[in-house]
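Dear support,

I submitted the protein below through the web form. The confirmation email said the job was done, but the results page showed an empty box. After a refresh the structure appeared. I'm attaching both so you can tell me whether what I see now is the final result or a partial one.
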Amino acid sequence: MLDSNTVSAAAAGTWKLGDLTVNRVGLGAMRLTGSAPFDMGAPSDRERSIRVLRRAVDLGVNHIDTAAFYFSSLRSANELINRALAPYPDDLVIVTKVWPGRNTSGEWWWATPEQLRGQVEENLRQLGRDHLDVVNLRVPPSRRSGSIAEHFGALAVLRDAGLVRHLGVSNVTPEQLAEARSIAPVVCVQNPYGIGASAEDQEFVRACGEQGVAFVPFFAIAGAGAEAGATGTDSETVLAVARAHDATPAQIRLAWTLRQGRHVLAIPGTSDPDHLAANVAAGALRLSDAELALLSTGR
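What the results page shows now:
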């Protein structure tokens, strides 16, 4: 059984986002603000969220994924990160995303290309930074088959201006990735992905590796589209492999994800210190080829 209190995020190895080296197990900040994503009801326990962030850094996490639109009543993920970790460690890479936005009532809106600078500056203010390490252009579901050139081009201008160091894309198709790469370098793709992914998604992951682009799946534990959190309905295959390793199903899902390529990173989100340690420890799990193949055949 893995000792979750001693395993470092470095156990899974590293990858470079441009010139920034990160451990392959990071932290998603979405759940730090409340019991459910984007919940405008009861806020999270502020001190507990701050403890999670500081414990993550202690465990070797140097890649945190966030966004200005990650907030609930009284809580902002970016401001929690600032409060917990500033002045920031030299090796800490904070990745954020733009295009979606939310007003103070929690209602969604989508930025025009001209409004992306304001979203970038909002992230800078909340995080207390003078530049952002990586900014992902998060494509809305309604634009999954359309051009992203105008929006990505606007981000490329901000990169040239020094407000952003590196660019990525999120919720994109292979064609949109190619379009973005024709405009400016892309260091990462952030798409839903996990056990049970389609052959098409598997091919996209492989293609990203061939292009030297990091693939950073979200919902690797909960499953694609499970924005409300893990479903708790793991297959007997996942449960059996978990029992064999004296691990949790979530750890097996993360270990499987990390085995899909050296360029595949993990950013599991949690507001629970124990879950955080268990997620980081999953980077040290070593699945056999037989287990990997068995898990890849189903959910």
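Response: this is the final, complete result; the empty box was a page-load delay. The chain has one domain: 9-296.
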